[in-house]
Amino acid sequence: MELALGAMAGLAPKLGELLTAEYVVQKGLKPDIESLSKELVMMKASLEDSSRVPPDQLSEVEKHWARQVRELSYDMEDVVDDFILRVANGGKSATATDANVFKKILGKATAAVKKVKHRHQISDKIKDIKKLSNELAELRAKYTVRGAGADLAANTGIDPRVINLYKKESDLVGIEESRDKLIRMLSIRTKDDAHAHVSHQSLKIVSIVGVGGLGKTTLAKTVHDMLKKQFVCSTFISVGRTPSLTRTFEKMLVDLDENYSQVNMSRWDEERFSNELHKFLQQKRYFIVVDDIWDVGTWEVIRYALKDNNCGSRIIMTTRNFEVITKVEEIYRLKPLSDGNSKKLFNKRIHGQEGETLDDISTEVSSKIIDKCGGVPLAIIAIASLLVDRPCDDWLKVYDSIGFGKGDNTTKIMSYSYYDLPSYLKPCLLQLSIFPEDLTIDTRCVIWVWIAEGFVHLDEKEEGSLFDVGERYFKELVNRSMIQPIDDKYSRFIQQFKIHDIVFDLIRELSKDENFISILSSREQHASLDNLRSEKKTSMTRSNSKVRRLALRNHHVQQIPDDTIDMQEVLRSLNIINSEVEIMTPLHSFRVCRVLYIENSYVPISLKHIGRLLHLKYLDISFTAVDEVPKELGHLKSLQSLVLINIGLDELPPTVCSLTQLMCLVAQGFKRFPANRMGNLTSLEELRLKTVIGRSTTEDLVVELGKLTRLRMVRMTLAEELDESLQKALVRSLCSLRELQELVLSSSGSQQGATVWEDWEPPMQLRRLLVGGIFFWQLPGWINRSRVPHLIFLSLEKFAVEVQDLDNLARLPELSYLELDGFVWPPGYTVGTDDFKNLRFCDVGTTLKFPMGAMPRLEELQFGVFAGYWSWQVNGVPFEQFPTKDIIEDLDLGLHNLLSLEKVTVRVICSGATAVEVQEVEAVVTSAVENHPNRPTIQVHRMLERLILSDEHRVALLQQHIQQRYHVLWLKDEPDAWFIAHLRSYRLLQKAVISIDCAGASLCEVEKVEAAFRHAAEVHRNHPTIQLIRTNTDEMVSSSNHPDTESF
Predict the structure, then answer these.
(1) Contact by Cβ (8 Å): 663, 684
(2) What residues does each domain of the chain span?
(3) Cβ distance 471 to 428 under 8 Å?
(4) What is the pLDDT of residue 640?
(5) For residue range 967-985, what is the model confidence (pLDDT) as tens digits?
(6) CA angle 452, 454, 456 (to 5 degrees)
(7) 973: which residues sit within 8 A by CB, 6+ positions away?
């Protein structure tokens, strides 16, 4: 069973809370609750076992039992929540009648449980134990479905991936690029290679990670077969989901040396095998592929048994579980096939060879089918196999039902992955079926929904917040390749993900079969009510099942169907996405609703009487018009998350600040915020506001922020500039936020960073930091590996970036994304082999040089190249920028050493260079990228193109002697930095003759300009001589005796 647990996980703790309530004791409810609690413990344990068994291995009795128990758990949770809310209300609404009703329901529940128990006779009764133990054991026996472990491993049939082991390389499509990159990552060299680096003789492990069906096994086998002759011994071992490690080690030894086939190893344990492998591999250069690892423990045991003997040995490990990967391994994320290779593979399966093509009609349908497969080779082969003997006219029918045909190996593999999930992850994954296909989904909002649904629970000994646990659930789903995280190229601090089509089809079917979510959707823009009811009767309901969760997506309907069983009384989650409901059922009628999610509703929504939804924990209205947000919104004392995005109102009402249990607030599209009352939201962990308008509102907000001491994430976009006083207030508030993990702050303008930022002591757990609109003169001293060791994302702006800044950032151990903006940069920077070890995205303003082994995980690189020399001043500070080629000879950047590089963006800074010099830089850098073995994409942009020098201007700037004329009145208000920048622009300057027109200037002004020129000459690197000649002295404002010329 894929779900089964229902509300069981959250119900037991709630019953435990009730046992301690004084009201419960007084009304004599304690014995009933204690009895039911015992039953629930056993039911939950049995259901967890059954959840690991695929439906085709369960009897109809077992399936029915699980469904009945799940429905019962939902009803019980509704009753308990109702009761807790009333008792929590000070007993005002908890009357004797309530007690009688509660007792009556408990009695019905107990009777229903007993009835279910009699239907569920599977395991033998346990006898001969003490009376109390016998009672509990009997309960367990009655509620225990067969153990999932051995049966599942024995009855799943042949793993379809085994077939792929016997394919010839010539039969594979699109494997060349992946194969070549994997070989480069292995850095194959012989031990006798005189130029081999020491690191190439150390054991090297490369892990191939990707979803099931993507071709990990095929790729690893291909590379193994190509390279095994370069090693003394080699083996390819498939481990699998439920491995016998002793058998695995035995096969490994026999493959490595045939002599072991004569050895009786039947009584060897894991330790004996490990010692034998250590001994055998001690002086041998070996190549081992460990295929299909499912868990960390198995990999650790195998990894420990393989000797690192400094003989240049190599290991490839494949897994769909990213959690298995350790820090000592390099990672190759296997990508789906390109569109072109997907078509080649499809055509090859249909026709038996790549050369043949399809007719126009078939091509159109096949393109849709290929796109549906998402580049997964196994999916493409499976779908093509369904079509190969069918007439082309039937292909569209297959497309409409793609993903669940008989014999679909892709579905079997993804099902295999699904049933391996822990029971707590399954409802989280199934909940994602409410979203439209191919939607990019906000990670954090989904986690808050899981919390509201009751899917997320702290273990008894677990500390932290529910969001921490939900985030762990999310990472587990990512590591198991069930969902795919997305790097948003335009908003790198937004966490999003997508669901592969095959996974989406799987969870959609599972949700429908088990009545987990009822979905109304249509490819048509309009659907008649009769058709809707017909669809509902055939696919929405199952016998006496109740609609607990309803999702309308991409649908037009007159009204929400109201003839399902008790829907308004039992509906826990209502989701309306990209849909139009002409006659909307009043939202307050869904009495026990926990989640209300409305996005892109094409008709306005009324929140009248919304305060009656006392169970509501998650309210999200996005891109949907709302008539008003009533004051009674503040009555929703259970509300944990409130998301209001572009709802057509100008003001976020003050009643929001009455929601003292609120943990997440997202508000966007409002012109006015109740900033002065935000401090009341003391349970808040996540705050996202966009855009905050007005000086007074901003002042109130940065002060109130300091009262929200449980905040873990703050994202704010401010329309005001953050001047020094606002920065001071903000930093004071930040000092109170000791749980903060993410700060994303964007303000208008370009303010100088106040020194008060040094006073902030960020929490050690800070992971993301983005500060826009503030330019720092110095990076805050706390940006170092000891103060922010877990920093992953960093985006800052600094006037002048120095080498020591880059040195400091390079040592941040977990830094993955770096965006650093600046006016001035060192012309080049050489990255050390131990620098930026985990960096995947890098955007800096200078050119980086990469030795072998540098930045092994870097995927995207954006950098600047300075084509010429330029000197200027900003805010009274002189700056100069040197050409990159002065530091990095021949612009040899070593880009070929970046093993994971996928995309390059080059900004050529044209100031101070001629057109020819700019073109030369572009040609050299483009050639380096084009010659990279990964063939990364490249974009080249010219910056400050208006400052390209003509040949004549360039010649003038290279003069050693200059003669110039200036008027005092033009220069009298310029800072010293202007004079310094001006003379610096002549890099070879030896002598300057400056004529100073004194007309209309005072003596004081003349002397100030002269002093500035003299100082500029003194600080010039060549210390040129300077001659100042005064002219038109008779036209000065006041006359005095002074020499007309001075020489220095």
Answers:
(1) yes
(2) 1-86+126-140, 201-333, 425-432+439-507, 517-521+546-636, 650-824, 826-949, 960-1035
(3) no
(4) 95
(5) 999 999 999 999 998 998 8
(6) 100
(7) none
